[in-house]
Amino acid sequence: MFLPKSLLWRAFLLIATLMLLAVAAWLTIFREAELEPRARQLTQLVVSMTNLTRVALLAAQPELRHHLLAELSDREGLHVYPADDNDQIVPPPPLPLPRRIATLLQERLGADTRLAFELNGEPGLFVSFRIFEGTEGDFWLALPRERLERKLPLQWLGWGAAVLLLSLAGAWLIVFLITRPLRALETAARKVGAGETPPPLPEHGPQEITAVTAAFNQMSANLRQLEDDRRLLLAGISHDLRTPLTRLRMETELSVAEPEARAGMAADIEEMDRTIGQFLDFARPQDSAGTPAEPTDLDALLNDIAGRYGDRVRRPASADFSKLAAARPEALRRAIINLIENALRHAGTAEPVDLTLTQAGNEIVIAIEDRGPGIASGEIERLKLPFTRGETARTGASGAGLGLAIVERIVRAQHGRLELLPRDGGGLSAQIRLRCS
After folding, report:
1. DSSP at 436
2. Model pTM score
């Protein structure tokens, strides 16, 4: 299909096509309706001229007939030629109007009446008639063909084109007014999909559009209320769960005498605290409570993150290009730290993790690369899902399986994408791709 993708232009194109087809249909109906009256009118004109010419020639004195024919030619544009058996004639084209005129002329002037559009190489409208009985009385009456042809005035074409353009402009305006609420609804829906809370849309227009807008506003209000309830719930969970963990940590330090048991219990408590943190990070709104994106110096951000890990994270110098990207810095920091922690925890090697910043086309690529066992290509998309862990995590590492899911949500909220690729020489390259500012 070659239809445009937008509803505005599709509707306009369909309405314009319908208007043009309607105009063409009305023109066809008009031509068919006027065919018979016009044919009879032109036939009556030709018959009258033919009869008047015959009567004038019969009434005129033989020596004055040449002067009569010359006067008819000068004043009326009529020419009379004697008919000959060797005359070369061109019949009228097989169109409805000439055919109908020929039929009516034969009914009025006789069955032997002929109609021609060219006689011996001379164009015109030629009608045969007889003055005297016998073959010597056959003549051709030549009329200007313009009397049969209809010329459409140029001003009609101008006015018709103007009316058509105004009609198309009106159709476009009507379709634009109908689809404008849908475009506003699309914009608001994209904001909801990005985790933002759009203002209520105006509820006016056609009944169907108003109903859809009202339903969307209600849905947006419900989502806003759910978001508020979730923030309140997260605050309560953070307090109610981590407070007992803090007390357990203190009791362990004070009550457990054996160092190994105390270290194991402390590790379990830290793991529980980290798991709770993952749950809270996954449930937290990834738009940072509506914080708008801002130009962020990614080079400085990565240097600051790498400095927290010392020798465990290497920060190679990046090439010379603009390091600015539209992002929410704090959310992006959480995503990068999560990937670094994941690489340090699952790589299973003493080699440090590389944190690089490069540019690929119109994207800036933040890569966290390790030399661990990597991830099978068939497992990549599955591991981005919540509560999913790979074989390596199940055999040695711990966690709730939310790390990559959290990063995926954060990166999508930044209008970017997360890619997990095999690293050259072995290992995994986790890449965050953001659009350049």
Report:
1. B
2. 0.47
